[in-house]
Amino acid sequence: MTVFQYHNTIIEQFPHTVGGIILAENIQIGDATALVEVYDAEQKAVIEKIGSKPLSEIDSLAAWRRTFRGFNVNPTKYRSAPEALLRRLTKKGDIPHINPLVDIGNLISIRYALPIAVFDLTHVQGAITVHLADGSEHYKELGNDETLHPEVGEVVFSDEKTMVVARRWCWRQSAESAAQATTSNALITIEAQHEGGRGDVESALNDFLEVWDTYVMSSTQHAILDRTNTAFRD
To answer: Is it the case that residue 100 has pLDDT exceeding 90?
Structure first.
């Protein structure tokens, strides 16, 4: 059964797309006390590593900016998730803790400057597909019950019932897909658009699984997708 896929039009328009996909089932969070210290240490290391370098000059972030422009989204008005995280970190000095599942994703995201999403699959029906929206899809933001619709031509992740779980590719997840401490099944995506992105995605995926397996009990499957392999099946 297909769990996640890139639509052909996405691969045609964005041929450098690489996605590391992890399916985690029967999740049980263990003692994550030490994760707080690990995450805080990573934040300090990343601040030191970036120094005074503008975020726009980091290859992976610059590539996402180009990608956003490729589907007519202003990347300064709508920043990619890793750029937003790193902007918060470099300007305010820290990223708040949310819950172990999200914190692990954010930890690896800032390490590699790559978008990492942890999707709760409770409300997802069928495969998640990355595609260009036709505007009929439906979406709810965190903390808001209003039903919204993406712009026509916007890159979205949606399920087979047109529920959007992420808008503007890697800008923001939906309320329904946000990982919680009670999440039992999740899909994790780690993506890149820059030259050499496959190597970074593979390294980030391995690092993610190492940290995940330290604090989370689950059964996992994973794969790397690109223009030659566009779907992940369980």
So the answer is: yes
Up-side HSE of residue 90: CA atoms within 13 Å toward CB?
19
- Tallying the residues shown for the chain, one arrives at 234
Q: How far apart are CA 184 and CA 147, in angstroms?
A: 25
Pairing of strands 18-29, 155-158: unpaired
Encoded tokens for 17: 């797309």
* Of the candidates 115, 120, 94, 96, the residue with the CA atom closest to the CA atom of residue 105: 115
The overall average pLDDT reported for the chain is: 97
Q: What is the DSSP string of 116-167?
A: EEEEE-TT--S-EEEEE--S--BB--TT----B-PPTT-EEEE-TT-BEEEE
- CA-based nearest residue to 201, from 213, 188, 185, 212: 188
**Tokens (6 digits) for 53:** 């370098």
Task: Give pLDDT tens digits for 18-64.
Answer: 999 999 999 999 999 999 999 999 999 999 999 999 999 999 999 99
